[in-house]
Design a protein that fits this description.
Distance between the termini: 80 Å
Radius of gyration: 22 Å
Oligomer: single chain
Number of helices: 3
Order of helices and strands: HHEEEEEEEEHEE
CATH superfamily of the largest domain: Sortase
CATH class of the largest domain: Mainly Beta
Shape: elongated
Helix content: 10-25%
Strand content: 35-45%
Length: about 160
């Protein structure tokens, strides 16, 4: 009787394992951006670094912008200025290789990189970064500097491009 109970428990655990494994195969191996549910508001391309990505429209929620895992996110607070953010470990992994004068294509328009800055995270003034601009401007931002716990970093790489 004890042996039968032991075998029954073993089959239950094997069955649960197989169900979990099957769920992983079905859901866990899908592309990451297939899981993300963002409104796509355009595309970005930076030919000099081989970057091409969809751009998700982001909302400012609970004091922060939630950056998509594998694509670029955009936030527009004022006319003529768009903030584009992305993770330095995925979509913006080569952003540090851009140079002044490189071109960025965004929403069918071509912008030229005019400024490249590395700013300490605690020194960033988002109000100033997002203030209106006379010319059509995009600002790209990603983590840079020393990695911190929780996937953050000490600095931000900020690229400003003007049309």
């Amino acid at each position: 009787m004890e042996l039968r109970k032991h075998l029954s428990l073993r089959f239950v655990f094997i069955g649960l394992y197989l169900v979990a494994f099957l769920a992983f195969i079905i859901y866990g191996l899908q592309p990451a951006d297939a899981v993300e549910a963002y409104d796509i508001g355009g595309e970005i391309a930076i030919p000099s670094i081989g970057l091409q990505s969809d751009v998700a429209i982001l909302d400012y929620e609970n004091g922060k912008l939630n950056t998509p895992d594998t694509i670029v996110g955009s936030y527009e607070k004022v006319e003529n200025k768009t903030l584009l953010i992305g993770h330095s470990t995925t979509v913006f992994r080569d952003l540090h290789n851009v140079k002044l004068g490189d071109e960025i294509e965004y929403k069918g328009k071509t912008y030229e990189i005019k400024m490249i800055d590395m700013v300490a995270k605690n020194k960033i003034n988002m109000a100033k970064l997002l203030e209106p601009s006379e010319k059509d401007t995009i600002v790209l931002m990603t983590c840079a500097g020393k990695l911190l716990d929780g996937g953050d970093a000490t600095h931000r790489l900020i690229i400003t491009a003007i049309r």
